[in-house]
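Long-time lurker, first post. I've been practising inverse folding by hand and with some scripts of my own, and I keep getting stuck on stretches where the structure tokens seem ambiguous. Below is the full token string for one chain I'm working on. Before anyone asks, I'm not after the true native sequence, just a reasonable design that respects the backbone. If someone could post their per-position residues I'd love to compare against what I wrote down in my notebook.
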């Protein structure tokens, strides 16, 4: 059993402090042995500039996007980073102030402009941010840094140069897409986003981007549209699930209030965070592809950011999720003032926040009227239940796979290329204690056994799984995580763990602090 670690020295503050980009890659000092087969680049995204001039950014998702790269080649490792030249960044640098409103930080009109030009800015509405700090992933031959708005940014994965800002609205009817696409075995990319549906009501579009074409984004299309259960308040979607035959979409109680969104843009000091609201009344409906069939899956309220995996087995869809109990929005607890507080304050704030839990839900696909009131789940290996009610809804109760007081298993990863949408055993995640990342955890979703890597005063990031070439076991591979150790002579390192045992194979230390990274991708050497 994992016992909570304390961080009284508050070294975690360092991962929320601004850094400068590098002019060239710097060599890392290697301890241990990097597997000879491991050649390629680990690309990571996160905030790198937490203030502009004397104006601070307020939320963890506001800092200007910094792309990081660890190159692994012949047992040697180098590290490089560059700011994305987004409009948010370039204009902030030019005017030395926050020019475009970010997730939790408002931009104010330029005080130097006269009253008329301010007046016109007011009516044009605010500009949507292109600060793509959340993830970086390939589409066809190209790499794109993304956030959750309609703007994505093409980046050169070698030089880290910013190549082009792309507006998804030109190709698709979506207001934005998640930063967590799915990739099918043939290279087709699927994603989901909010959109305007019929007669001015909101809906969700699942979109696909075909593989291999020269400009895949231009060939993207909407696959299916799901109506929003509240006409003007779509749920916030951060990710979704995909099995061989189904998309799994969870409509959570955290909603985007469209009317607020449209009016707030004209109110001084309003941000994206002001447009969210949550209520407990709706419950959560879960709808596989038979969305418009007569059955709705419901369960008690939770926040959801990351799907772990989903698969079909014996007439059921099994859905594994990183949940946060209740309807209070978790992002309310990710303001930098919270995260950079004294340890005792950080702990106090986390006491009020929703509690994290890894859950498995099981959705029966074959439902008969006469089964009313019975548990429809007969799978031998789960305690999750599904009960048909007289109104046709199916009430789900989860099986808890991992739960500890204020101990989150988050930023989940799996052996994606082999096991996405398949029955699987292992998930790897970042362990958060009171929202502070302080360990790497491996979870056996079948036996609930856990393995932990952690080290004094070390703050890791999302572990990415890279399979050993020709591997036959699901967990035969390595985990790559960027770890910050603020007090050390070389305060950051790339950690390489054996994914089977969670033991250290090597680390590559660099003499620069690396601020928090959110998500990323491993690009094998071509």
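-- Answer (accepted) --
I ran through it position by position. Result:
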């Amino acid at each position: 059993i994992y016992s909570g670690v304390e961080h009284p020295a508050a070294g975690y503050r360092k991962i929320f402090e601004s850094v400068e980009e590098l002019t060239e890659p710097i060599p890392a000092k290697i301890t241990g042995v990097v597997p000879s087969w491991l050649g390629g680049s680990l690309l990571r995204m996160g905030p790198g500039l937490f203030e502009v001039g004397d104006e601070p950014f307020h939320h963890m998702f506001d800092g200007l996007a910094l792309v990081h790269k660890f190159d692994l080649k012949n047992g040697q490792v180098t590290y490089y980073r560059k700011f994305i030249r987004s409009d948010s960044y370039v204009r902030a640098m030019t005017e030395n102030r926050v020019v475009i409103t970010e997730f939790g930080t408002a931009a104010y009109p330029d005080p130097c402009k006269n009253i008329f030009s301010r007046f016109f800015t007011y009516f044009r509405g605010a500009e949507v941010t292109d600060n793509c700090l959340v993830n970086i992933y390939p589409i066809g031959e190209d790499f794109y840094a993304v956030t959750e708005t309609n703007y994505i940014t093409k980046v050169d994965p070698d030089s880290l140069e910013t190549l082009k800002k792309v507006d998804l609205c030109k190709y698709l009817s979506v207001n934005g897409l998640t930063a967590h696409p799915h990739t099918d075995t043939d290279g087709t990319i699927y994603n989901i986003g909010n959109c305007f549906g019929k007669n001015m009501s909101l809906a969700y579009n699942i979109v696909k981007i075909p593989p291999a074409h020269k400009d895949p984004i231009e060939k993207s299309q909407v696959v299916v549209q799901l109506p929003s259960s509240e006409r003007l308040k779509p749920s916030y979607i951060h990710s979704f699930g995909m099995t061989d035959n189904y998309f799994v979409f969870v409509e959570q109680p955290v909603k985007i209030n469209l009317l607020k969104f449209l009016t707030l843009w004209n109110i001084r000091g309003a941000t994206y965070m002001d447009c969210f609201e949550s209520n407990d009344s709706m419950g959560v409906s879960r709808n596989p592809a038979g969305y418009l069939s007569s059955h709705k899956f419901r369960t008690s309220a939770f926040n959801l950011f990351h799907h772990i995996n989903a698969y079909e087995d014996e007439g059921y869809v099994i859905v594994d999720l990183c949940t946060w109990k209740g309807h209070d929005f978790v992002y309310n607890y990710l303001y930098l003032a919270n995260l950079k507080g004294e340890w005792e304050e950080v702990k106090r704030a986390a006491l009020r926040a929703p509690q994290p839990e890894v859950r498995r839900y099981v959705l029966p696909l074959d439902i008969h009227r006469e089964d009313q009131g019975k548990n429809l789940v007969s799978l031998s290996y789960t305690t999750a239940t599904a009960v048909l009610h007289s109104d046709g809804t199916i009430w789900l109760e989860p099986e808890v796979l991992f739960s500890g007081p204020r101990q989150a298993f988050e930023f989940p990863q799996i052996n994606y290329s082999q096991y996405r949408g398949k029955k699987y055993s292992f998930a790897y995640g970042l362990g958060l204690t009171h929202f502070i990342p302080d360990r790497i955890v491996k979870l056996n979703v079948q036996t609930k056994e856990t393995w932990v890597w952690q080290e004094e005063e070390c703050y890791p990031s999302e572990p990415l799984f890279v399979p050993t070439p020709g591997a036959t076991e699901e967990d035969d591979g390595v985990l790559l995580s960027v770890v910050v150790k603020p007090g050390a002579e070389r305060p950051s390192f790339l950690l390489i763990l054996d994914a089977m045992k969670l033991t250290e194979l090597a680390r590559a230390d660099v003499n620069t602090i690396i601020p928090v990274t959110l998500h990323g991708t491993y690009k094998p050497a071509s």
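A couple of notes from the structure itself: Helices lie at 87-95, 115-124, 258-264, 336-339, 343-352, 416-419. Residues 287-292 have pLDDT under 50 and may be disordered. Happy to go over any region you disagree with.
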